[in-house]
Amino acid sequence: MPRLLLILMGVVNSFCFFTEVGNNNHLQYSLARSDYPWYGIDYTGKQATGRFTNGRTIGDIISEKLGSSSPPPYLSLLQNDDAILNGVNYASGGAGILNDTGLYFIQRLTFDDQINYFKKTKEIIRAKKGEEAANKLCNEAMYFIGIGSNDYVNNYLQPFLPAGQQYTHDEFVELLTTTLEQQLLRLYQLGARKVLYHGLGPLGCIPSQRVKSQTGQCLKRVNEWVMEFNSQVQYLINSLNRRLPNAQMIFADTYPAVLDLINNPSTYGFKISNTSCCNVDTSIGGLCLPNSRLCNERKDYVFWDAFHPSDAANEVLAEKLLSSLASASAPTPALAPKPH
Q: What is the dihedral of CA 110, 111, 115, 121, to 10 degrees?
């Protein structure tokens, strides 16, 4: 059986495909970091690794279920490390589709940065294996991408940033999807064929957004915006599959399933889904700092901090994502784009 090459790209944040495993640890001035307690308390060795949760990311769990080890962070590898032949993780906390998303984190790998690093990776593979083998390996690799949540949480929804005032939401979605189209085309040109794009979950229901509601409820308008974004990305991916030879891109829409997890936590063995296990001030920062107070039973909580799911929730979400692939893999009729 050939080795499965997993390429993980995107971001770690807010119910998209959370995959970062420590790239930002290697960025000296990055403020988007989780390399301190209490992160990693339920991970192997009980040490923080750069994962924005108490244990495993969805990427870790899916890699395991697919029979592969979790790919290492790209920035941890030496220039000619043979480990790149088994898969690489380029994901970076704070990253977005837009290059100005997360600017206040000072350093993070934007999606364009990640694609540039993938290009360098392919050049290394070509030097090791030759042109034909490098192309074959990249064509057969599986690419997991989850990005877009930070473009909302750390850009459009921030009152002190210009995007929310500069664009209507329809204009912002168009900017996101036209930018994403060029990024996916570039990945295709570099050899990516089997791409899974994980759509956004109900961002209006994460603790950092609920705190903006006087009643602590989900923000309906934010969730409506997310559903519009998901619809447009699904249309984009269907369009790319029609236009690009041998493209096998899949849009995984787990929004309804994730919303069900939040609305009905007891169905999945949880007790609390409206606030985080790590007792953080969700109106400021929202990360689990070393002086934060933890809940007594971590498995009772869907959220670890103000943005990110717990290890136990990631287990559920990984199962939901994998089960959604069966239906997502089937040909679907193209959706008409929403007029602007």
A: 60
* Apex 268 CA angle, 263 and 273, nearest 5: 40
Token pair recorded at residue 96: 């977005």
Contact by Cβ (8 Å): 179, 98 = yes
Burial class (CB in 10 A: 0-12, 13-18, 19+), 242: exposed
Structure tokens given for 135:
């192309």
Distance CA 36, CA 246 (A): 43
101: DSSP letter: T
Whether 305 maps to a domain, the answer reads yes
Answer whether 302's CB lies under 8 Å from 232's CB: no
**Cα→Cα distances 6→67, 172, 296, Å:** 11, 31, 36
Residue 155's domain is classified under what CATH number?
A: 3.40.50.1110
Range of the domain at 188: 6-326
pTM for the whole structure:
0.91
Q: Which of 29-33, 124-128, 142-146, 284-288 has the lowest mean pLDDT?
A: 284-288
Q: Do the domain assignments include residue 246?
A: yes
3-state secondary structure of 67: coil
pLDDT digits (tens, 9 = 90+) for 38-65: 999 999 999 999 999 999 999 899 888 8
